[in-house]
Design brief:
By secondary structure, the chain is mainly alpha-helical. The protein contains twelve helices and four strands; from the N terminus they run H-H-H-H-H-H-H-E-E-H-H-H-H-E-E-H. The N terminus is likely disordered.
Length: 299
Amino acid sequence: MTTTTATGSPLLATAPGRAGLRQGILSEWTKLRSVRSTWIALLVIVVAGIGLSALISNVEAGRWGTLGAADRAQFDPVRFSQAGEFISQFVVGVLGALIVTSEYANGAIRTTLATLPRRTTVLAAKAVVIGAVIFVVSEVTAFASFFVGQAVLTAHGGKTLPEGSTILTQVKSSFIPVATFSSTGAARAVFFCGIYLTLLALVAFGFGLILRHTAGAISLFVGVLLVIPLIVQILPSSISDSIEKFLPSNLGLAMIVVTTRKTDFAGVLLSPWAAAMTLALYTVVIVAVGGWLLARRDA
């Protein structure tokens, strides 16, 4: 991904040193949308989000007849419909990091900081743009995936849950439960899926500010999501049980699941709101550290 400050950029319409947050946001949006890789990445989020969710819903629907009572109790049609977030989380991480590191790679950061001397304005403009773009795309994908996932379950003979009911009420039923937005926890889980991806993009943005290197920021992001959970799993249970619930990937899972608060690979999960607030706290701290370094280091 490359960034440009070619003629036509909103920043160049304002005298150097006089641009504010509005001009900064317009400039960052111009730079982001003018790069082909941005649109490819956003397309991947949509296609992978909807496609993988449909696939997983189809697979799980096919397994329904072989499930015992315990497994049916954990059958989560809402979570299956959001399965695409597993791929999307890495894509948003790449975009979040690149909005910063690409400018350091090609030297364009000097032009940006010369036009916007207040580095807090640069920080805010980039955060607003990447956060807003990922939020909109992620929420649209999450809601579309929900409807697609429930349609797949319905095609397998699933039946819609009564209004206001919980998925657990269908454990003893012979048909596959299909959720609606009136099902307990469904609307919250779908909305939180988009929030989760947005916060991850901002976490990667913070890593980019801290490291100023594309490969390093993306590697750190992937390590936090994938490598650290694997390391924690091999630790003694007395240690892992108290740590794993606070890992970012498990916080995301806690935000999305509906039927259970315990999994074989993530242990006992936090409540959805507690998980969201914890991840938001991580995001604020990481971005704040990145902003502090941005203000004190030379370009």
